[in-house]
Amino acid sequence: MTALTVALVLVAAAVGVLRWRRPAWYWLTFGVTLAVVRVLVRYGSVMDACGLTVPPARWRLALARATNRPIPGPRAPRILRLRPTRTGLVLRLKLRPGQDAFDVAAASDRLRHSFSMYGVTSRELRSGVVEVRMTGYDVLKRVQMPAKTDTRPMRVPVALRQDGSVHYRDYRAIPHALTLGATESGKSVYQRNLVAGLAPMDVALVGIDCKQGVELFPLARRFSALADDPDTAADVLDALVARMGRIYQVVRAQQRIAADVPDAEIAADIWDLPTDLRPTPVVVLVDEVAELALYANKEEEKRRDRVITALVRLAQLGRAAGIYLEICGQRFGSELGKGITMLRAQLTGRTAHRVNDETSANMAFGDIAPDAVLAAIQIPAEMRGLAIAGDSSGGWHRIRAPHTSLRQAVNICNRHADRTPDLPELAPFRPALSGSADAPVPAAKPSPATA
Ligand SMILES: Nc1ncnc2c1ncn2[C@@H]1O[C@H](COP(=O)(O)OP(=O)(O)O)[C@@H](O)[C@H]1O
Ligand SMILES: [Mg+2]
Fold first, then answer.
1. What domains, with CATH codes, occur in the chain?
2. Which residues contact 267 (CB under 8 A, 6 or more apart)?
3. For ligand 1, which residues put their CB under 6 angstroms from it?
4. pTM
5. How far apart are CA 439 and CA 416, in angstroms?
6. pLDDT value for 94
7. What distance in angstroms lies between residue 142's CA and the mean position of ligand 2's atoms?
8. For 285-311, what is each residue's pLDDT tens digit?
């Protein structure tokens, strides 16, 4: 008897420690079974208590009276499916007449407490069917990406969402994106994850890192062009604009359309070209964009205008030529001068890490999702890497990228170094690499002026 008691106490203690230290393992071992039992046993009473039931239909009442049976109780939405996942449960519900998806969304906090889950979100799948996603623990505290993700060309699984699903950066759906955040909020780590995710794909990477190149130069083996000061950046961007023009000529030649067909009618892009003709898509990563927009004298002002004009042109026309912009900065508003708000309007994807004030959050979401602004200001300083990701449809999610160290990213880039395409336009900006494969940090930046 005492042995049994001791064994039970030990198991309970082990489960407690597991739950505290390794919530993901706890969930996979005990948590998921307990949660399924809890949801199934409590379902009826919880739905009733949360106001998600409807009175029985009249014909049921009449039938009960006629046959002298007990009067039927209120009815909860029918469970169509209950699916355990790596991080929680997914419940698919068929609503009763008179209920709507908003009722479920409004009750999600009550459901969370009643089922003792960490988070509950819901969305309508189709008319009358609602999916309720529950997470068993704080999945963003220690981000672990699932081993298998749905990979497609130009679509990078970059972070985990609060509801446990994977957040993708899909360049073909959202060509250009803006990432904002105060210093030390996790922008560079997010960008590093993107580079690591893009490295195994058929894509050319171009980096502009005016912080002396500290973030991107260690990854140089996978980059087709790198710039670490505004002057080189201006040359790189001009070369990209020239490349864009040439790609449009290729697309146009392939279509064999007479020159008098209006441009608007030949909506086509590089993905419509046959594979052997298709130019390599290019992702342009800009870290600390404000460095490109600041100037101290007339000459720098000229360069700044050149840079911003090139960025605006790439943002407006780059998508069809397979040139995608990924811009990071601390602030990105009209105080950086003319052209900035025009550029921002072209950057569809928006991600905001922790920001210090509402105006910075407004630069990311003010024009698309006002409630995301509030969520961005509320990110706690100690949760670095936590971010709000939205797009121009007004939807947004809380996301966090895994903490990829610079060393891990360097290793991934070195492993895929042979995939780095040589783009003729960008050849002068190709980082000069020192000989051995395990010397990741390249020599000083190549500059066309000194080359
Ligand atoms: N997703 C993350 N998970 C855990 N820690 C993170 C994450 N992102 C950033 N950090 C921490 O925050 C620090 C600063 O991140 P960094 O990306 O360099 O900030 P920023 O570029 O915004 O100044 C990193 O050194 C890292 O320790
Ligand atoms: Mg940074």
1. 18-135 (3.30.980), 155-429 (3.40.50.300)
2. 320
3. 181, 183-189, 384-385, 400-401, 403
4. 0.85
5. 15
6. 96
7. 21
8. 999 899 899 888 999 999 999 999 999
